Amino acid sequence: MENNRGGWGSNIGFLMAAIGSAVGLGNIWGFPYKMGRSGGFTFLIIYLLLAVFVGFVIMIGELALGRRTGTGPIGAYHAVSSRFKWIGWLAVFSPFIIMSFYSVLGGYCIEYMSLNLSNLAFRAAPISGEDLFSSMLTNPWGSVVFTVLFLVICYLINRGGISGGIEKFNTVGMPALFFMLVIIIVKSLSMEGAIEGLKFMFVPGYAVAGGFIETAPSIGTVLATAGGQMFFSLSLAMGAMITYGSYLGKQENLVKNSAIIVIADTIVATMAGIAVIPAAVAHGIQQGIPVGEIALGGPSLLFVTLQNVFNSMGDIGALFGTLFYLLVLIAAISSAISLVEVVATFFIDHAAQKGRTANRGRVVLYVCLAILVEAALVAFDGLGSNGVWVPGQSLGIAGWNDCWLDFMDMLSEGLAMPLGALLMGIMVGWEIGPDSTLDEVHSGCGRGIDGFFRISIKFLVPLGMVLVLSGQISEFFGADAATIGYGLGIGICAVGLIAALTSPKRRELKK
Ligand code: PHE
Predict the structure, then answer these.
(1) Cβ within 8 Å of residue 226, ≥6 positions away
(2) What confidence score (pLDDT) does residue 2 get?
(3) When you count CB atoms within 10 A of the terminal residue's CB, does the N or C end of the chain come out lower?
(4) Gap between the Cα atoms of 310 and 202, Å rounded
(5) DSSP characters for 439-480?
(6) Does pLDDT of 249 surpass 80?
């Protein structure tokens, strides 16, 4: 299997790539907004608890699974499990689906970066964020062109291989991103009224008290939001960390590496929040917009609110705009290449299994072309602006209604991801047992967490994941569907446990 798969040039290179995968759009528009809406500091604490007891543990599990088997998710699950072999497919399907919208959003970033750059060069009068965004959305061919451009960048990086492409890009990209983030933070905090934004993010209950939202979400919703966000943000249950782990040397310390990835991702998410939310809120207040009407999350935060902030800065705004969209673009690319790599690695491993050597360049090209087909659909839909039919519109299922981006997001991040994570936890904890993972962890001298790992993977991970999955299923079916959500979530967990406990693999290992 080793034949020309390649591997990381150094542990730090691996770390940069894994952090690059984790730090993405989710950190910039997801985390700060969800944190503000869901109780500020309280959300942060819940997020951190979930990150330590569930995310960190699954991160170790995924890196170990990849490294132990030396293959991407499909081969890895096949090698270790008899009941959960098919999860590997889920872990290749989800990244592919995520790329359908990730590449469109990456394309939007290129478009905005170029616009700000040309404003900078020609001192053109800036156009309002609202006009810019709606003209971009209603110009499907334009969006497709920029999506293609984004995919070409990914293609060129992934074609270069693990150390020659992915590692190289991230080793430069991640420090650059960090540096730009610090510059934007300084600018953002210097704006008058920035403090309101900080309060929204950090002070418990301030979102309601300060008029940002009307009612606080329930604790169940907060748990599901924090859990879903944590998974997406750490690139878990998507095959990404299994794939990156499969290229990692046996001597590396998985525990230390996992801790660094989780900590770095959380720090960058918080920093991204401090970079964007105070600026967005300060600008809104200066314009006399009620805080409840300022878009602080999702695509509108990036492409409407923040563009208006840059516009209001005068000439220097175009410079900050260029810098900011470049930063977001780097974050998007570094995540996208990990998603592309999951799918590409599958084909490369598959060929190796058949005794053939796949041509990496050609595999990556086909993967990117396939992504382009689904991404074109999302681009054409333009977040629902162009009247493209969306599945479920006729069925009236809440989670399917809005637009193709939401639909794809619901399928991958919403359902496949928590389902995959729940079943993976059950597989590691109850079918093959935590010790097989710990053996792999020990080869890189990661010790001292055995007891914690055993308890977490057996009990806390399934419990946490049932909560997240149930919350997501409820959301999928719309308001008042909590009973269906929790019923299905607990049901799936029970079936999974029975499958694990009666698995032939378990009996074989017990002997
Ligand atoms: N972690 C990325 C983000 O925060 C998204 C991602 C998920 C990337 C899964 C790779 C795998 O945006």
Answers:
(1) 34, 38, 43, 46, 47, 50
(2) 44
(3) C
(4) 24
(5) HHHHTTT--S-HHHHHHIIIIIHHHHHHHHHHHHHHHHH-TT
(6) yes
| Nearest-angstrom CA–CA distance, 17 and 260 | 12
Instruction: Answer whether 244 contacts ligand 1 (Cβ < 6 A).
Output: no
Polymer length in residues for the chain: 511
The pLDDT mean for the chain works out to 90
Query: Which residue, 220, 276, 261, 273, is CA-closest to 31?
Result: 273
Question: Among 10-24, 73-87, 307-321, 379-393, which is the least confidently predicted range?
Answer: 379-393
> Could you tell me the distance, in angstroms and rounded to a whole number, from the CA of residue 413 to the centre of ligand 1?
9
* C-alpha 232 to ligand 1 mean position (Å): 5
DSSP 221-274: HHHHHHHHHHHHHTTTTSSHHHHHHTTS-TTS-HHHHHHHHHHHHHHHHHHHHH
C-beta 82 within 6 A of ligand 1: no
Confidence of residue 497 (pLDDT cuts 50, 70, 90): very high
CA distances (Å), 428 to each of 65, 86, 118, 363, 496, in order?
9, 14, 52, 31, 12
Burial state string for 18-40 with b = 16 or more CB within 10 A and e = fewer than 16? bbbbbbbbbbbbbbbbbbbbbbb
C-beta 238 within 6 A of ligand 1: yes
**Cβ of 57 less than 6 Å from ligand 1:** no
Q: Is 338 in the pocket of ligand 1 (CB under 6 A)?
A: yes
Q: Is 18 in the pocket of ligand 1 (CB under 6 A)?
A: no
Whether ligand 1 lies within 6 angstroms of the CB of 21 is answered as yes
Mean pLDDT of 13-21: 97
- Could you report the per-residue pLDDT of 152-168, keeping only the tens digit for each? 999 999 999 999 999 99
b vs e for 374-404, b when ≥16 Cβ sit within 10 Å of the residue's Cβ?
bbbbbbbbbbbbeeeebeeeeeebebbbbbb
Structure tokens at 167: 């590692």
Q: Which atom of ligand 1 is nearest to the CA of 25?
A: 12
Interval 310-316 mean pLDDT: 89
CB distance 99 to ligand 1 below 6 Å: no
Is residue 158 lining ligand 1, measured as CB closer than 6 Å? no
pLDDT digits over 413-469, tens only? 888 999 999 999 999 999 999 998 999 999 877 678 899 999 999 999 999 999 888
Specify the amino acid at residue 380.
F
What tokens does 342 get?
Answer: 């999951």
DSSP 291: G
Domains of the chain: residue spans and CATH: 11-391 (1.10.4160.10)
Question: Distance (Å, rounded) from C-alpha 380 to C-alpha 387?
Answer: 9
pTM: 0.93
pLDDT of 75 higher than 80: yes
Interval between CA 454 and ligand 1 midpoint (Å): 26
Q: Find out whether the beta carbon of 229 lies less than 6 Å from any atom of ligand 1.
A: no
Q: Rounded to an integer, what distance in angstroms lies between the CA atom of residue 450 and that of residue 482? A: 36
